Recover the amino acids of this structure.
């Protein structure tokens, strides 16, 4: 359908598109209503792979995917209950704001974005999909079908900072996910670069410092502080009406350190 | 485009422009002006209605998406002349001042109590976090939800 | 918490709102809900530039746009071309220049709202950019661009009392403070409906705070006598000062008269930010001198307000702010220099507190600094210097009414502090940062802060304020019904409920109904300045008593009516030294805030606020608490989250996405208490209560943040950058110079320019 009506704007939850329409920033001549496509509303987890359809709302993610803690925490932090009932994973992905709440989670999961057109399906690794602020690798005749990743049953978390206690666009966000089977972890940063980015230097430091054989071994505080510092160095934040670059660096440093401390503590508690 | 939606229990046939919002159709085509336009961006909740049973910001729903769906607005909350316990509680608690946010809050509060009849303070506040009010400071809104909950148990 | 509301109750009861049922069912009609047959929609074309000459306007494309029925520019205006609350310095539609980004330039009417928007976008305006002045101190400099021909000083207030030069103090503290531009952010937008009348007149249903001042401005601009311009209040969804100046009323009326069809206009949120005045940003330099034992002997304040492009009510705001600038304290030697300047920023005017919040932030912050320097408890310092009945203010005015400042302070201090909370193991949403899930209890520090503020009730400086009301007893099967006719607007505070309670108590009549508020009756004055319960309540009370006296003779023939116009006692203007009986009455409030700060992230959570307010006599406890709670929340917004962010005179955040008013997760429990010492000369001894909570809340919260973090925090809103210490305190190069003006009058008045509304502002002859 998308190929037949290339000017029709895809629409699912409408929480991004309709906001633009209401403010006169976009006047689509036609919309492609994806909210009725049943397949997009499915999620499944089998064979160690999780697939979440583009049409799954954040309310459902928070309720039905609570076991995937970082994803559920990100979903719970989106907007408001009303927004969560409509906003979808696919919309978050297709809009590709660097502040999109689900994107750091997808990055920390090493997720692939599943795309489809009339002629083909393809999976694109997240870092090849998000190209810049609100720019993606989506072709004009393609739709986002969902995201999938290998299930990791290990501690992780999502956190985002805003200037009030609810309904904020993230000034800075982080997602951390331990991958014990690989003796590594992923740390993704949101709102501090043109796209969501991974903090590779910080990841390497922590991967080397964590005792992957002994879950009860505490992590020296200096590691957490250095982890935060390296994460912050990797960020490229800007000043905008929502926050300053200097504060964003500070927030990333603190959030990253806390995320690591929580992951280590949760790992110890589970053991 | 012609759509058919069940609005407050009766099927409506409506001709809607492609990008018109459900809020605009409810207010302008159906005269259901309870849902309000206060921000047009889903930031304030004054336009909250139920869409297939879930509270949503109707300003962010394209009207075409209501085709075949069930829409309930604040006008459906009272039972004729009998107010819903949430509405009574809002009045008894002093939770209404200018009232512009009230329809959205009533829908959100009714929905909250339908899912959790005995919410604690944090649950109430998280459940109403999508509704802005400029007049009350929210305290009496929380009181009203608690009062409605107590009265219904 | 007060016990639940009751119906049909009199003065002193928590009566249920008489307009409550339609509000909870969605049936209540606000300006934006109005519609009628054959209606057109209006839209406004606004300048994107803060300062520019209009070279030309091409409306041809707009006129040819589908559904368009009219396009009007300044050339089409039939009468006077300017409006204004105090001075008519503001073009109805921009003529040769635009002076702020957002200024209306043209208006269109079309068959649908969407068509009107498209047509407005099709109006082509050619601008020649001009230099803009967007900094209030720069505006004072002689070489800065002039916003108006007569220069950038709109008004300067000079107050001198005692002798500052000879004041002997042991200790001096100097402080510099800044407050940002705040927006009223009423949920209900500017909206209304204008219908052309048969005789060439026009009927307007509008969202407003004062019908008669709207009419007084509109009639000459429409080229119509006032009797042919009829305004009726539509439901108003909040105002807080943003509905005192004209917004769409005149534009819709012009379009209605041109097209001979009803015209509806309603602003969306973005346009609303451009379509009303905001709270004046301020810079304040304050110096206190005190003896070792904590008696303040001297205060020297310089305050500067940014009035933006047009006068609005700025002259009154700077007058107000100046009279409060030294704080609610007995100080024998005071100098206050207060200036409001024009800039090319968006115009500022009335917002809840009307200048008092800005100076309260400064003087209460300075008081804490003084207490610290003296080694005194901050509350004790305030108690030692608090005003009372009989005190002399810096204006020489003697407080003749009640002033239970000490009691308000002591009662606030006596409210038990909230219990300590566990730092770990809470619901994640209860940590600072709320729904963002940023904490498990790390680096939390609590702080407690205290502030006292005061505000005038009713209008000042010799304004002959009055309110008319008519009460009629009509016969009915179940007993007489009282009908109240008032032009007063209730935009949420519950005025009509209070009036009904007064009628019930005075006449013993259960059922009270209200006629629509319109210009058909005499002016009730503005719903602002915390004045309506006193003024319209006073008129209703007097009318009821006149009715009772008329009925005392024996059985009455109903219907019977009495009309009363209530005036408060006269006030005076400022003399050359800023002395005068400026205000009618004062109300005081103390607030104590407890905050919890995540010191690593700089995120704050207000844990609880205790608010004690001097109310004279509480007419409706539920309504009164609602005003204190809502007012406190608005002060919380200025303290922590709200700022209209300007870049070169352009608003960067005209939306609720980025202009952040407090959510339910941001406002804590508020413990409210009232001190009731009846105010002489006031109906039931009451004092207006709508504003002073807003005044005291901001400094109380900032004081708590300082206690939690040790940061200086001399600017609001406080940001996370301030709390973590990566943004230094606001700095100054020194006091803004005092402009060379003679007299206390606003410059336009002194120059005899566009006197506009000044006819309304003349004092009664003594």
């Amino acid at each position: 359908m998308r190929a037949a009506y290339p000017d029709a704007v895809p629409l699912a939850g409408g929480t991004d598109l309709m906001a633009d329409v209401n403010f006169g920033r976009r006047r689509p001549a036609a919309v492609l209503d994806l909210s009725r496509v049943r397949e997009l509303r499915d999620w499944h987890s089998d064979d160690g792979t999780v697939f979440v359809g583009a049409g799954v709302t954040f309310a459902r993610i928070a309720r039905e995917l609570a076991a995937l803690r970082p994803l559920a925490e990100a979903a719970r932090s989106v907007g408001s209950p009303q927004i969560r009932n409509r906003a979808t994973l696919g919309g978050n992905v297709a809009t590709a704001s660097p502040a999109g709440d689900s994107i750091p989670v997808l990055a920390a999961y090493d997720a692939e974005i599943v795309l489809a057109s009339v002629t083909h399906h393809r999976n694109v690794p997240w870092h090849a999909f998000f190209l810049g602020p609100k720019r993606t690798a989506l072709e004009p005749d393609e739709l986002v079908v969902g995201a999938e990743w290998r299930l990791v049953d290990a501690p992780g978390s999502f956190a985002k900072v805003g200037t009030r206690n609810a309904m904020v666009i993230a000034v800075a966000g982080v997602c951390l996910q331990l991958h014990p089977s690989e003796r590594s972890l992923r740390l993704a940063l949101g709102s501090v670069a043109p796209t969501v980015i991974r903090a590779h230097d910080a990841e390497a430091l922590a991967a080397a410092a964590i005792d992957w054989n002994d879950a009860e071994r505490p992590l020296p505080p200096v590691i957490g502080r250095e982890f935060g510092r390296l994460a912050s160095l990797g960020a490229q934040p800007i000043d905008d009406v929502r926050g300053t670059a200097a504060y964003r660096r500070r927030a990333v440093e603190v959030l990253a350190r806390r995320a690591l401390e929580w992951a280590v503590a949760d790992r110890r508690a589970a053991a | 485009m012609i759509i058919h939606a069940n609005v407050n229990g009766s099927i409506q046939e409506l001709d809607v422009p492609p990008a018109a919002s459900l809020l605009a159709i409810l207010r302008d085509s159906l005269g259901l002006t309870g849902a309000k336009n206060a921000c047009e961006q889903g930031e304030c909740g004054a336009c909250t209605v139920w869409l297939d049973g879930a509270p949503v910001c109707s300003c962010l729903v394209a009207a075409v998406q209501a085709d075949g769906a069930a829409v309930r607005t604040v006008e459906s909350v009272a039972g004729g002349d009998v107010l819903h316990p949430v509405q009574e509680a809002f009045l008894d608690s002093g939770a209404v001042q200018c009232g512009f946010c009230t329809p959205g809050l009533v829908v959100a509060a009714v929905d909250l109590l339908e899912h959790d009849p005995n919410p604690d303070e944090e649950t109430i506040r998280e459940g109403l976090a999508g509704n802005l009010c400029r007049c009350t400071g929210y305290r009496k809104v929380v009181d009203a939800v608690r009062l409605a909950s107590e009265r219904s148990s | 918490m007060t016990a639940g509301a009751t119906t049909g109750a009199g003065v002193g009861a928590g009566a249920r709102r008489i307009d409550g049922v339609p509000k909870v069912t969605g049936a209540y009609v606000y300006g934006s809900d109005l519609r009628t047959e054959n209606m057109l929609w209006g839209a406004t074309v606004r300048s994107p530039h803060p300062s520019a000459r209009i070279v030309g306007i091409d409306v041809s494309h707009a006129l040819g746009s589908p559904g368009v029925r009219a396009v009007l520019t300044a050339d089409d205006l039939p009468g006077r071309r300017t409006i204004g609350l105090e001075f008519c310095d503001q073009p109805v539609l921009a003529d040769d220049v635009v002076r702020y980004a957002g200024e209306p330039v043209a208006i269109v009417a079309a068959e649908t709202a969407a068509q009107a928007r498209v047509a407005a976008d099709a109006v082509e305006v050619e601008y020649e950019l001009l230099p803009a002045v967007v900094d209030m101190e720069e505006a004072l400099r002689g070489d800065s661009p002039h916003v108006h021909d007569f220069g950038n000083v709109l008004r300067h207030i000079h107050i001198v009392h005692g002798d500052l030069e000879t004041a002997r103090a042991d200790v001096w503290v100097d402080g510099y403070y800044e407050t940002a531009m705040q927006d009223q952010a009423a949920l209900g937008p500017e909206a209304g409906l204008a219908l052309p009348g048969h005789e060439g007149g026009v009927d307007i249903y509008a969202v407003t705070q004062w019908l008669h001042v709207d009419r007084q401005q509109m009639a000459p601009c429409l080229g119509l006598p006032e009797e042919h311009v009829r305004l009726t209040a539509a439901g108003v969804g909040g105002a807080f000062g943003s509905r005192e100046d004209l917004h769409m009323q005149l534009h819709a009326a012009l379009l209605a008269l041109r097209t001979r069809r009803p015209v509806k206009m309603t602003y969306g949120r973005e346009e609303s930010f451009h379509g009303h005045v905001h709270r004046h940003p301020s810079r304040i330099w304050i110096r206190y001198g005190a003896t070792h034992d904590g008696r303040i002997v001297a205060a020297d304040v310089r305050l500067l307000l940014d009035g933006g492009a047009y006068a609005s009510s700025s002259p009154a705001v700077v007058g107000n702010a100046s009279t409060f600038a030294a704080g609610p304290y007995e100080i024998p030697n005071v100098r206050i220099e207060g200036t409001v300047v024009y800039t090319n920023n968006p115009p500022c005017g009335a917002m809840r507190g009307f200048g008092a919040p800005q100076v309260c932030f400064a003087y209460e912050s300075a008081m804490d600094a003084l207490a610290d320097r003296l080694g005194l408890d901050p509350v004790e310092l305030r108690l030692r210097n608090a005003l009372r009945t009989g005190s002399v203010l810096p204006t020489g005015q003697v407080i003749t009414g009640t002033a239970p400042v000490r009691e308000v302070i002591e009662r606030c201090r006596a409210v038990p502090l909230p219990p300590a909370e566990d730092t770990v193991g809470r619901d994640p949403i209860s940590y600072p940062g709320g729904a963002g899930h940023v904490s498990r209890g790390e680096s939390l520090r609590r702080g407690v802060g205290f502030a006292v503020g005061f505000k005038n009730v009713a209008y000042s400086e010799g304004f002959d304020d009055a309110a008319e009301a008519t009460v009629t007893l009509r016969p009915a099967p179940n007993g007489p019904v009282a009908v109240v006719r008032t032009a007063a607007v209730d935009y949420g505070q519950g005025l009509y409920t209070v009036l009904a309670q007064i009628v019930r108590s005075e006449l013993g009549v259960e059922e009270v109904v209200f006629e629509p508020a319109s210009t058909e009756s005499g002016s009730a004055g503005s719903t602002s300045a915390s004045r309506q319960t006193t003024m319209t309540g006073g008129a209703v009370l007097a009318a009821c008593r006149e009715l009772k006296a008329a009925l005392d003779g024996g059985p009455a023939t109903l219907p019977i009516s009495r009309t009363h116009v209530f005036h408060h006692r006269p006030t005076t203007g400022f003399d050359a030294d800023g002395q005068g009986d400026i205000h009618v009455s004062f109300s005081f409030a103390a607030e104590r805030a407890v905050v919890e700060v995540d010191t690593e992230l700089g995120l704050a959570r207000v844990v609880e606020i205790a608010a004690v307010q001097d109310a004279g006599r509480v007419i409706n406890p539920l309504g009164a608490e609602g005003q204190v709670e809502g007012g406190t929340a608005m002060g919380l917004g200025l303290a922590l989250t709200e700022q209209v962010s300007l870049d070169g005179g352009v608003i960067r955040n005209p939306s609720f996405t980025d202009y952040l008013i407090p959510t339910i997760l941001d406002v804590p429990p508020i413990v409210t208490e009232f001190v009731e010492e009846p105010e002489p000369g006031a109906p039931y001894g009451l004092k207006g209560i709508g504003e002073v909570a807003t005044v005291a809340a901001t400094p109380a919260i900032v004081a708590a943040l300082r206690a939690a973090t040790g940061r200086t925090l001399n600017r609001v809103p406080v940001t996370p950058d301030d709390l973590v210490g990566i943004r230094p305190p606001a700095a100054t190069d020194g006091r803004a110079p005092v402009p060379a003006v003679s007299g206390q009058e606003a410059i336009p008045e002194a120059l005899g320019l566009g006197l506009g509304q000044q006819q309304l502002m003349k004092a009664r002859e003594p």
DSSP finds 17 helices and 28 strands in chain C. Residues 113 and 702 of chain C are 44 Å apart (CA to CA). Residues 34-130+187-238+243-275 of chain C form a domain with the Aldehyde Oxidoreductase; domain 3 fold (CATH 3.90.1170.50).
